[in-house]
Amino acid sequence: MTNALAKMLAERDWILADGATGTNLFNMGLASGDAPELWNVDEPDNIRTLYRNAVNAGSDLFLTNTFGGNASRMKLHGAENRVRELNRVGAALGREIADAAGRPVIVAGSVGPTGEIMAPMGSLTHELAVEMFHEQAEGLKEGGADVLWVETISAPEEYKAAAEAAGLAGMPWCGTMSFDTAGRTMMGVTSAAMAQLVTRLNTPPLAFGANCGVGASDLLRTVLGFADAGAALPLIAKGNAGIPKYHDGHIHYDGTPELMAEYAVLARDCGATIIGGCCGTMPEHLRAMRNALETHDRGPRPTLEQITAALGGFSSALDGTEAAGDAPEPRRGRGGGRRRRDA
Amino acid sequence: MSDEDDIILADLSDDELVEQMMDDLYDGLKEEIEESVNILLARGWTPYDILTKALVAGMTIVGHDFRDGILFVPEVLLAANAMKAGMFILKPLLVETGAPRMGKMVIGTVKGDIHDIGKNLVAMMMEGAGFEVVDLGINNAVEAYMEALEKEQPDILGMSALLTTTMPYMKVVIDTLVAQGKRDDYIVLVGGAPLNEEFGRAIGADAYCRDAAVAVETAKDFVARKHNQMAAH
């Protein structure tokens, strides 16, 4: 099959991805608590508008409205039997908009987390996770997605399950994790650990990286961590447009288009190839990012100080990639030397 | 694993055993915690002392290291699991002995939000701190919260949302409480990855809790204040 993203990666040295899905759909009237994926069928024109706005703002790649389109998530809305349909339609609407763009635009089939904890800590088995992701992947493939876009993952087990599902569907894929807890994912994965993880997969992604999380500064520190770990694959940076604020029943993210433009340029300097936004990133942000990427030359790798000076402070002093001596000491426990009496 | 590393829990003094239990909680060793709880009970400890001096104290340390980015969700889940096993033994005994109660919390993720990892952590850490927790699970409409509050009469309502698309629903619940004149009957705590203190204030919650450890500290603080207020009346 043709692999449009691999081709674009070979031809270009940066690619502008898209911005927020949820924030944009809210502005079109999506009610809090409702499943955005149902709009693929119920309000297709709104979804077309979402995609078209990203393309018109300069995105070379946009994500489909299928983030929560797995059986585990759709079950909440009694739609667990519509996974294939909702993903197919979400991708087909994307195909329609991309093909009408008049330039190459990649349709990336969004695959979000199941929301469950995987065994042995939780109840979701590897097999079931692969099955759910595979079902979603087949729907996205049928609808004409160019690539699977696994995002906002926090557990390495879930990332591996998604990789396996992409392999089963015969789809190229990209995968990002969300580093929102002291510079790591909620499950404790560091940027360095993720860079290692992708090298050990049987079906490696075309590109990997970070999305969402806490803010633009944290996200770029994570990208620097990937680079420092010797990442050979192209890197993805998709950070939030600032932090959420609440006004009159709506969520607004406080990052300005100017800030996101600075972030985009710095992301490229940090080593990211695919650069976009996440929550709160609207078309005006994307336009500013596109313009900045086109008008600025690639600069030297920024220092952490330069990042915080431009984009604000980090949410935590450390991110788990520091030398062992600098890491905080556990207050208890015996760690690896687990002593226990014989039963 | 060599023999000299083996620890015979029953051979430890009370103080050593309590120290050991804190290590075992930290390491998530469920069977060891169960055994230690039974040893202390056999030595005549009250269930309340075992709960507060060993389990709650141990989980407080886990909470601090979680808050400080030293432990992450997998380790905390293991620790909470070990704690729960100890609590399972103590719970009926605590009721029998009429031990003092910390307070009661009703908790659930809001409508549309399936992401219950954070909510579960808060529920487990709150139980670990001695609170009674009624877990409504995921995807709660405002009616479900109102019904549970009426039935359970808790001190605290906890709501969690992970997604930008579900965060605003917390305000729907709080607005309903206000409309029904019940807002001041409960301490309302909110949490979830995309939230922050400003959001918590803007929607009318009492506090935003960054993580499960902060939730426990905040809950203790508010419950103590509430009790003081009641005493002043």
UniProtKB/TrEMBL annotation, chain A:
<dbReference type="Pfam" id="PF02574">
    <property type="entry name" value="S-methyl_trans"/>
</dbReference>
<keyword id="KW-0170">Cobalt</keyword>
<keyword id="KW-0862">Zinc</keyword>
<keyword id="KW-0949">S-adenosyl-L-methionine</keyword>
<feature type="binding site">
    <location>
        <position position="212"/>
    </location>
    <ligand>
        <name>Zn(2+)</name>
    </ligand>
</feature>
<feature type="binding site">
    <location>
        <position position="279"/>
    </location>
    <ligand>
        <name>Zn(2+)</name>
    </ligand>
</feature>
<feature type="binding site">
    <location>
        <position position="278"/>
    </location>
    <ligand>
        <name>Zn(2+)</name>
    </ligand>
</feature>
<feature type="compositionally biased region" description="Basic residues">
    <location>
        <begin position="333"/>
        <end position="343"/>
    </location>
</feature>
<feature type="domain" description="Hcy-binding">
    <location>
        <begin position="3"/>
        <end position="293"/>
    </location>
</feature>
<dbReference type="InterPro" id="IPR050554">
    <property type="entry name" value="Met_Synthase/Corrinoid"/>
</dbReference>
<dbReference type="InterPro" id="IPR003726">
    <property type="entry name" value="HCY_dom"/>
</dbReference>
<protein>
    <submittedName>
        <fullName>Betaine--homocysteine S-methyltransferase</fullName>
        <ecNumber>2.1.1.5</ecNumber>
    </submittedName>
</protein>
<dbReference type="InterPro" id="IPR036589">
    <property type="entry name" value="HCY_dom_sf"/>
</dbReference>
<keyword id="KW-0479">Metal-binding</keyword>
<keyword id="KW-0808">Transferase</keyword>
<keyword id="KW-0489">Methyltransferase</keyword>
<dbReference type="GO" id="GO:0047150">
    <property type="term" value="F:betaine-homocysteine S-methyltransferase activity"/>
</dbReference>
<feature type="region of interest" description="Disordered">
    <location>
        <begin position="317"/>
        <end position="343"/>
    </location>
</feature>
<comment type="similarity">
    <text>Belongs to the vitamin-B12 dependent methionine synthase family.</text>
</comment>
<dbReference type="GO" id="GO:0032259">
    <property type="term" value="P:methylation"/>
</dbReference>
Automatic annotation (TrEMBL), chain B:
<keyword id="KW-0479">Metal-binding</keyword>
<keyword id="KW-0170">Cobalt</keyword>
<dbReference type="InterPro" id="IPR036724">
    <property type="entry name" value="Cobalamin-bd_sf"/>
</dbReference>
<dbReference type="InterPro" id="IPR003759">
    <property type="entry name" value="Cbl-bd_cap"/>
</dbReference>
<dbReference type="Pfam" id="PF02310">
    <property type="entry name" value="B12-binding"/>
</dbReference>
<dbReference type="InterPro" id="IPR050554">
    <property type="entry name" value="Met_Synthase/Corrinoid"/>
</dbReference>
<dbReference type="InterPro" id="IPR036594">
    <property type="entry name" value="Meth_synthase_dom"/>
</dbReference>
<feature type="domain" description="B12-binding">
    <location>
        <begin position="102"/>
        <end position="233"/>
    </location>
</feature>
<dbReference type="InterPro" id="IPR006158">
    <property type="entry name" value="Cobalamin-bd"/>
</dbReference>
<protein>
    <submittedName>
        <fullName>B12-binding domain-containing protein</fullName>
    </submittedName>
</protein>
<dbReference type="Pfam" id="PF02607">
    <property type="entry name" value="B12-binding_2"/>
</dbReference>
<feature type="domain" description="B12-binding N-terminal">
    <location>
        <begin position="8"/>
        <end position="102"/>
    </location>
</feature>
